[in-house]
Design goal:
Layout: H1 3-14, H2 24-40, H3 45-60, H4 70-85, E1 101-106, H5 113-126, E2 131-136, H6 143-154, E3 157-159, H7 170-183, E4 188-193, H8 201-214, E5 218-224, H9 230-242, E6 246-250, H10 259-268, E7 272-276, E8 284-286, H11 289-297, H12 300-326, H13 333-348, H14 360-367, H15 371-382, H16 386-390, H17 397-407, H18 411-434
Bound molecules: guanosine-5'-diphosphate.
The site of guanosine-5'-diphosphate has 18 residues, from helix 5.
Length: 445
């Protein structure tokens, strides 16, 4: 699932590698590619339009980060927007204050509701709950038996209508199921409801009636990720008919393009909460929009690197430094040291650099970069007094000799460091004049 979308997006980002600056034309070309990739993956048109517009706007507005080059920023923007399309924050199940919590499943026939009931049941049981599955799908022959079989496999109790007496009333079964859970102290009830092959008024009315009869805490819309664009129209119909609170994507293990499933959260405004990834009881997971977005972008490692780079530079250096430079303060040896320490984080993850889009020159520098160099720099700077760090020009010959002794380095090492610092300081000053943000000036090596 999503593999061709992944490939397309990765190829697009690769095209940005090595670009130091993105022109408007670069951004437009990139956004066009992203748009095509999403459409080809079956993502709904209104979702694609909105997505492309926001990515373009954000990529063009200079959201400045001292740590990232423009290409990385585009990746970051696309990732963030993708997380948004998938529902934003991970949405956990809401449990009722007074049990039982009622979870109602709705969706078309074959969507995977009954299978999901078993998976949810087992998952809840594993977390110490005492769930009860209620078989209120009296439409499909065998649905009740199927739920009983699934419940048994999951080790979860099932409430089913007594056989015989013709077709029972699903609304009544659902109501009695919830009452039974209350009596027997089950703290969660999962109500499996009937679906049809297509949306129809009678089914929707039945679902709405079950909803009224059981006052569910969650109404989960189960949608087969393989049904393409129909997923969106079906979701809209269910949203209007039964007021959903969340979405479950099923059959995410299939090889369909899956983009329609990606549109459902955005179109309904309801978060994707779970993903079903196979026929087995364990093929089930809580849905994390951010992880799914990373998986789709196929760039988990790169995103980790971007995060770390930001952590290393944003908090400690960029913002703080930017503010101080703006107020006219100078770049000191302490700042230089902080920058170098930031590089240590970069150094420890340099093995990932091969995957990075557009690290260009920095990548080459980092690849030949020896972390021990930072230790040496640190030792030298730490052997200086605070006054010396603030104003290195007072460092005469005897001070330099003292620092060399204190740090276990030679005077030549101290001199080299000071030369390098002077270069970085010049660069910082020229950046202030040019209004740019301080980056990673003065790389060692
Ligand atoms: P319902 O009509 O909505 O209750 O759908 P079912 O739970 O009966 O599922 C319909 C079919 O899809 C069954 O054959 C299930 O085994 C299968 N199925 C359900 N969930 C998944 C899934 O996540 N992946 C795959 N590959 N098959 C699934």
């Amino acid at each position: 699932m999503f593999s061709s979308l992944s490939d397309r997006l990765s190829a697009t980002f690769k095209g940005l590698r090595g670009k130091g600056r993105l022109s408007e034309a670069d951004v437009d070309a990139t956004v066009r590619e992203i748009r095509r990739a999403l459409l080809d993956a079956d993502v709904a048109l209104p979702v694609v339009r909105q997505f492309a517009a926001v990515v373009r706007e954000r990529a063009l507005s200079s959201e400045v980060s001292g740590a990232l080059n423009p290409a990385q920023q585009v990746v970051k923007i696309v990732h963030e927007e993708l997380v948004g399309v998938l529902g934003g924050e991970t949405r956990r199940l809401r449990f009722a204050k007074t049990p039982p919590t009622v979870i109602m499943l709705a969706g078309l026939q074959g969507a995977g509701k009954t299978t999901l009931a078993g998976k949810l049941g087992r998952w809840l049981r594993d977390q110490g709950h005492t769930p009860l599955l209620v078989a209120a799908d009296l439409q499909r022959p065998n649905a009740v038996t199927q739920l009983q079989v699934v419940g048994e496999r999951a080790g979860v109790a099932v409430f089913a209508p007594e056989p015989g007496n013709g077709v029972g009333d699903p609304v009544d079964v659902a109501r009695r199921g919830v009452a039974s859970a209350r009596e027997r102290h089950h703290d969660v009830v999962v109500v499996d409801t009937a679906g049809r092959l297509g949306v129809d008024a009678e089914m929707m009315q039945q679902a709405a009636d079950i909803r009224s009869a059981t006052s569910p805490d969650e109404v989960l819309f189960v949608v087969d990720a393989m049904i393409g664009q129909d997923a969106v129209t079906t979701a809209q119909a269910f949203l209007e008919g039964v007021e959903l609170t969340g979405v479950v994507l099923s059959k995410l293990d299939g090889d369909a393009r899956g983009g329609a499933a990606l549109s459902v959260a955005s179109v309904t405004g309801r978060p994707v909460m779970f993903a079903s990834t196979g026929e087995g009881l364990a093929d089930f997971e809580v849905f994390h929009p951010d992880r799914m977005a990373s998986r789709i972008l196929d760039m988990g490692d790169v995103l980790t690197l971007i995060e770390q780079a930001e952590k290393a530079f944003d908090a400690e250096t960029s913002q703080d430094l930017a503010q101080r430079f703006a107020s006219g303060e100078d770049f000191t040896l302490d700042d230089f040291l902080v920058q170098m320490q930031g590089l240590r984080n970069m150094g420890s993850i340099k093995k990932m650099l091969g995957m990075l889009p557009g690290m260009g020159e920095l990548r080459e520098q980092l690849e030949s970069f020896d972390e021990r160099e930072i230790d040496r720099i640190e030792a030298i700077v730490r052997s200086m007094t605070p006054a010396e760090r603030r104003a290195p020009k007072i460092l005469n010959g005897s001070r330099r000799a003292r620092i060399a002794r204190g740090s276990g380095r030679t005077v030549t090492d101290v001199n080299q460091l000071l030369d390098r610092f002077a270069d970085a300081q010049t660069m910082m000053r020229s950046m202030r004049k040019g209004g740019g943000m301080p980056g990673m000036g003065g790389l060692p090596g």
